Amino acid sequence: MDSKIFNLKAKLEVYKAMTNGGNFADCPVRDVIQGISGKWSSLLVMALAEKPYRFGELRRLVPDISQRMLTQTLYELQRDGYVHREVFPTKPPSVEYSLTDLGRSMFAPLQMLVQWAELNHDAVREARAAFDAAQP
Amino acid sequence: MDSKIFNLKAKLEVYKAMTNGGNFADCPVRDVIQGISGKWSSLLVMALAEKPYRFGELRRLVPDISQRMLTQTLYELQRDGYVHREVFPTKPPSVEYSLTDLGRSMFAPLQMLVQWAELNHDAVREARAAFDAAQP
DNA sequence: TAGTGCTGGTCTCTTTTTGAAACCACCATT
DNA sequence: AATGGTGGTTTCAAAAAGAGACCAGCACTA
Questions:
Q1: What SS3 class is residue B75?
Q2: What contacts A49, CB < 8 A, 6 or more positions away?
Q3: How many angstroms is C1' of D16 away from CA of B4?
Q4: How does DSSP classify residue A88?
Q5: Low-confidence residues in chain A, pLDDT < 50
Q6: Nearest Cα to B31, choosing from A121, A73, A66, A119?
Q7: What interface predicted TM-score (ipTM) does this complex get?
Q8: Is B26 on the interface with A (CB under 8 A)?
Q9: CB atoms within 10 A of CB B63
Q10: Per-10-residue mean pLDDT, chain B, length 136
């Protein structure tokens, strides 16, 4: 067997999970990761991890999200089971979004990544500045 | 230490980091997170965490990425300091991509998220199916 | 009673991002 | 002389995202 091809097939445990052992057409881990790797998903999960919020509150909390993307991202998070949506029959009706148990359990590893980002954003910004300065 | 209180404190710290103390729009942590939350970024970091790969190897490894997005994502990962790019003067010249120390340190928390996804993809798919079934 | 505002959205239009595919120069092999 | 592998760039179409108008329903106000 060609060693190059063999090396391509030899993958780490985590990478196997990510690639479903070479079957890219149906990879659950990639499917899940891509569901929370959108531009606004993780941010909204962070916000809702603190406490439930209503639609308008989230809109004011994240001022640079469009109303359209807020609706859509919350819909997707709800569909994937991370977020619970509850309508209260007030006048006018108010809608509260909160994390489900699944959402809270996903928040734990997400938190790791955010803490890493908090510790390393200086390094990233320095790398970015150095890279841009070295460009012709 | 009471684990509930500990978790609450951790949550609030992370929330503050993500929100820049209430200022969501201009937040360093968000800047870092959004740099790795692209569609292909995490997947390529996972691959390079195993071992360095050349451009063509990555292209074959991730068959559903376009050459254009592979170039662009690797460029961004390099710019943010996660990936090192080295050109070898072979004929034809070959280009090797590898994780930097920063990239490896980021891989650790990312791995947590992937492992969570591996453990919970059934729950997510069930939530999705239940949600779709409940739609009119 | 007509106007105004707040609720949580949808609809339409424009801009940005992504995908698909062709193209490139170089060199080795066939 | 044609073919294939190297690591890309370029071009054009499709998809996604952003900006802003619009909507129904009710409360409050003038």
A1: helix
A2: A99, A103, A104, A107, A111, B11, B14, B15
A3: 40
A4: E
A5: 1-12, 14, 24-25
A6: A121
A7: 0.88
A8: no
A9: 9
A10: 42 60 71 93 94 94 93 97 95 94 96 94 95 86
Domain positions in chain B are 38-134
Q: Tokens representing B84?
A: 């090192």
Helices (H), chain B: 3-19, 28-36, 41-50, 55-61, 67-79, 101-134
- Chain C positions within 7 A of any protein Cβ atom are 5-12, 18-22, 25-28
Residues 6+ apart with CB under 8 A from B120: A32, A102, A105, A106
The C-alpha atoms of residue A107 and residue B50 are separated, in whole angstroms, by 26
B108 in contact with chain A, both atoms CB, cutoff 8 A: yes
Q: Please report the pLDDT score of residue B26 as a whole number.
A: 66
* Cα separation, A125 vs B6, whole angstroms: 30
Distance (Å) from the alpha carbon of B123 to chain A's nearest alpha carbon: 8
What's the token pair of residue B126?
């069930």
Tell me which fold the domain B38-134 belongs to.
Arc Repressor Mutant, subunit A (1.10.10)
**Structure-block tokens of residue A39:** 């531009």
Instruction: Provide the 3-class DSSP secondary structure of residue A90.
Output: coil
- Residue B32 dihedral angles phi and psi, to the nearest 5°: -70, -45
Contacts of B124 (CB under 8 A, 6+ apart): A31, A32, A35, A80, A81, A102, B117
Structure tokens at B110: 């990312």
- Residue B92: nearest nucleotide (C-alpha to C1'): D6
AA identity, residue B42: S
